[in-house]
């Protein structure tokens, strides 16, 4: 059975890193005799320029039918005008919503070889292996009303943080399942001392917790969580949180790993193959130079193999090849080295070994 993968390279370094990820997917496919059929479409700023919309209906429809979607990045200074009627990011948000991918998994590992790449002290970083489960289709990003208003000559603006119980329950349930399969610890991050949505969130976490007696749960206020992420990051296993809290905390967590360029993500829903994207942005300052770190995209391709195509051995093989490349000193510029995007990709390809990935 051939798999259909929609590739949405997007803006900035998106095309370079998705191209790298495709090479690695192709190598895995050749070994496991998988047929991968790709179709590429526009999203973000380039789609605004060429189609007049950040995500057109035909592309969304194709993504909904696909076995998985691989995305690069969206946005850039060209489209940053605060008065613009449409922004590149709207394409990404419409895609997440349209695919129903309510849970965004962002694993953060510290590779022993990269301990010195982080500004934090080595003893803080040893053993860091956490997974942030970010709610992705609700919360502050999507709540209504969301608009500008004018009254008595004053300009105002409103964004709303809103959740239905089922939106919280489904992402929390998945976080418990993931925690049960890992080290059995779940930190639910909220701002329950101030926000009504967070108090509902806590109640639902307590309810779901009844079904997972093997998981040890704690509630952590988001400001405290931000502090603990750098003060004692190894103590976290799985973190589950609201959309924007998760956005902010995962950029912070990227500092643990040594570079934003390393972090992958998988966005999953109740059905469908999911959406896979590195967490770094479009990095317009280095776009088109062939120097971006492809590992976040390559590790996203590994998650695509694992969750989208159910090819666990292939996923592990890719992850181990990345780990080996890092162990053996391969570094792009963001990690203090000088390898180009393509050289780093080749370093991973050379180390891909499909013999008994453990
Ligand atoms: C991310 C990004 C996006 C987000 C932007 C580009 C809309 O920061 O995936 O973390 O805020 O979700
Ligand atoms: Mg972000």
Task: Write up this protein.
This protein has 358 residues and is an alpha/beta fold. The chain has 2 domains: 202 residues, 3-Layer(aba) Sandwich (Isopropylmalate Dehydrogenase); 139 residues, Isopropylmalate Dehydrogenase. It is built from 12 helices and 12 strands. It has a 10-stranded mixed β-sheet, sandwiched between helices. The protein has a two-stranded antiparallel sheet with strand order 6-7. Strand 1, helix 1 and strand 2 form a beta-alpha-beta unit. Helix 1 packs parallel to helix 12, helix 6 crosses helix 7 and helix 8 runs parallel beside helix 9. The radius of gyration is 20 Å and the shape is globular. The protein starts with a strand and ends in a 7-residue tail after the last helix. The model has no long low-confidence stretch (mean pLDDT 96). The structure holds 3-isopropylmalic acid and magnesium ion. The site of magnesium ion has 2 residues, from helix 9.
Name the helix and strand elements from N-terminus to C-terminus, one letter apiece: EHEHHEHEHEEEHEHEHEHEEHHH
Rounded mean pLDDT is 96
Oligomer description: single chain
Q: Under the CATH scheme, which architecture of the largest domain would be assigned? A: 3-Layer(aba) Sandwich
């Amino acid at each position: 059975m051939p798999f259909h993968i929609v590739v949405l390279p997007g803006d900035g370094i998106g095309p370079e890193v998705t191209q790298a990820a495709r090479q690695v997917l192709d190598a895995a496919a050749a070994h496991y005799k998988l047929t991968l059929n790709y179709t590429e479409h526009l999203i973000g700023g380039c789609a605004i320029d060429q189609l007049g919309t950040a995500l057109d209906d035909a592309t969304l429809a194709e993504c909904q039918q696909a076995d998985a979607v691989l995305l690069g990045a969206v946005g850039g200074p060209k489209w940053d005008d605060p008065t613009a009627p449409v922004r590149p990011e709207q394409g990404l948000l419409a895609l997440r919503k349209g695919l129903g991918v309510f849970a965004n998994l962002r694993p953060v590992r510290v590779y022993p070889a990269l301990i010195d790449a982080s500004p934090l002290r080595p003893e803080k970083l040893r053993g860091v292996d956490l997974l942030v489960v970010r709610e992705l289709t609700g919360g502050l990003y999507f709540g209504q009303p969301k608009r500008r208003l004018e009254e008595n000559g004053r300009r105002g603006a409103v964004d709303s943080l809103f959740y239905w119980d089922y939106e919280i329950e489904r992402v929390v349930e998945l976080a418990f399942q993931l925690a049960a399969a890992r080290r059995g610890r779940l930190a639910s991050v909220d701002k329950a001392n101030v926000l009504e949505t967070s108090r509902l969130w806590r109640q639902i976490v307590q309810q779901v917790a009844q079904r997972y007696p093997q998981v040890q749960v704690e509630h952590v206020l988001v400001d405290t969580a931000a502090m603990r992420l750098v003060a004692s990051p190894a103590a976290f296993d799985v973190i589950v949180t609201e959309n924007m809290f998760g956005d902010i905390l995962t950029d912070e967590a990227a500092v643990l790993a040594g570079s934003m360029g390393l972090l992958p993500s998988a966005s999953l829903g109740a059905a469908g193959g999911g959406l896979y994207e590195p967490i770094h942005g479009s990095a317009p300052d280095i776009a088109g130079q062939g120097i971006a770190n492809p590992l976040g995209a390559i590790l996203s391709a590994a998650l695509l193999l694992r969750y989208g195509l159910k090819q666990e051995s292939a996923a592990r093989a890719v992850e181990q090849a990345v780990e080996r490349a890092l162990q053996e000193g391969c570094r792009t510029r963001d990690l203090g080295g000088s390898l180009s995007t393509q050289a780093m990709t080749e370093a991973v390809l050379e180390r891909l070994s499909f013999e008994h990935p453990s």
